[in-house]
Amino acid sequence: MMIGTRALASIAAAVVVIAGCGTTGPSTTGTSPTSAAGPAKAVGATTDNLGDGKIDALPAGTLYVQYLDVPQSVGAPITHAHIAGYVYTHVGTHRIAITGGETKDVKAGEAAFVPPNVGHTHSNPGPSANSWYFVSIRPNTARTAAPTFPGQKEAFASADLAALPAGPYSLGLRAVTIQPNGRTAAHKHGGLESILVLDGSVEVRVQGAAMKTLQKGEGILIDADTPLQVSNKGAASAKFLAFFVTADGKPFSTDVETSP
Predict the structure, then answer these.
(1) Are 219 and 230 in contact (CB under 8 A)?
(2) Taking 90 as the threshold, does the pLDDT of residue 116 lie above it?
(3) pTM
(4) Phi and psi for 102 in degrees, rounded to 5?
(5) For a tag on the chain, would you pick the N or C end, based on fewer CB atoms within 10 A?
(6) 3-class SS letters over the chain
(7) Alpha-carbon gap, residue 121 to 123, rounded angstroms
(8) pLDDT digits 0-9 by tens, 140-157
(9) Among 8-17, 53-62, 75-84, 127-136, which stretch is predicted with the lowest mean pLDDT?
């Protein structure tokens, strides 16, 4: 059968169109967008926002960041008022009742913000002992003061901080999970960030400092406006708490183009 010149041209054009579609469509082989990400981009990292609380002013005096580990038997109510901070439950369930306000059961992996100088009660609704962190920025006089909570242990404490600007602040808490060979984006925060490792181990790279490996139970403080990146070189997933102290008007987080 004879095919005319015009018909041959139509067939050739169709072949070109089909070939072009094949090069732009999804592929089952090759490099995925995630694994192709540059070293400053996040891979295998997820962040859970556990809360953001507002305070009108920081506590007076020279300050530092502290993570207290508090065990509590069933019942065992503790009623008091103190500086602002976060309760983060890592074993069991913690019940916090704000005087004249909300009562909340904080289960393992959850957190609750405690406003400053507001009466409240910590208790354990059972059926077994619990354990929780209280995370705060506080005056350095607390280093030698009587315990805030019965049986408390200091999980991490920063060095004394340089003077911070006056005015209102936001206190934030996040839980970050990084898969093996994963990493956060390279980024910086407008305020202070502190990290406490909950599971596994992480490598923390901070601009202007040597890389530091943190194991479970270890922490670090990163100054405001300082690029950093956290990665997991281990064989199991890693998880850490991140506590932020950010002055009003400052950006919370900004990605940067180069890994520190």
Answers:
(1) no
(2) yes
(3) 0.85
(4) -80, 145
(5) N
(6) CCCCHHHHHHHHHHHHHHHHHHHHCCCCCCCCCCCCCCCCCCEEEEEEEEEEEEECCCCCCCEEEEEEEEEECCEEEEEECCCCEEEEEEECEEEEEECCCCEEEEECCCEEEECCCCCEEEEECCCCCEEEEEEEEEEHHHHCCCCCCCCCEEEEECCCCCCCCCCCEEEEEEEEEEEEEEECCCEEECCEEEEEEEECEEEEEECCCCCEEEECCCEEEECCCCCEEEECCCCCCEEEEEEEEEECCCCCEEECCCCC
(7) 6
(8) 999 999 999 999 999 999
(9) 8-17
Residue 154, C-beta contacts closer than 8 angstroms, at least 6 positions apart = 66, 67, 68, 69
pLDDT in tens, 208-233: 999 999 999 999 999 999 999 999 99
Encoded tokens for 71? 């065990």
Q: Check: CB of residue 233 under 8 Å from CB of residue 182.
A: no
Cis omega (within 30 of 0) on the bond before 127? yes
Q: Using CB atoms within 10 Å of the CB of residue 226, give its burial: 0 to 12 exposed, 13 to 18 middle, 19+ buried.
A: middle
Q: For residues 32 and 47, what is the distance between their CA atoms, to the nearest angstrom?
A: 22
